[in-house]
User: Fold this.
Amino acid sequence: MCEEEIQVRDSAEYPPVKVCEKNPRYAMAMLSNIGACNSEMSAVSLYFYNSLIANGKYERHFTRSVWWKCTT
Assistant:
């Protein structure tokens, strides 16, 4: 039922970062993704907080799912 895992790797290093000038549009896009009310960090924080307050209460629902069986 689980799909075969395919690993893709490249031994080459990342190229060096070259900054030519400041880019305010890029900075605003990054800031909105990290610090806005509906940002990715807000979602991650909410998931983490919910996992703490749930304290395993709903674990039995996850252990029955196909996703859980494929990832454990």
In short: The radius of gyration is 20 Å. Residues 40-54 form the longest helix (15 residues). The chain has four helices and no strands. The chain has a mean pLDDT of 76.
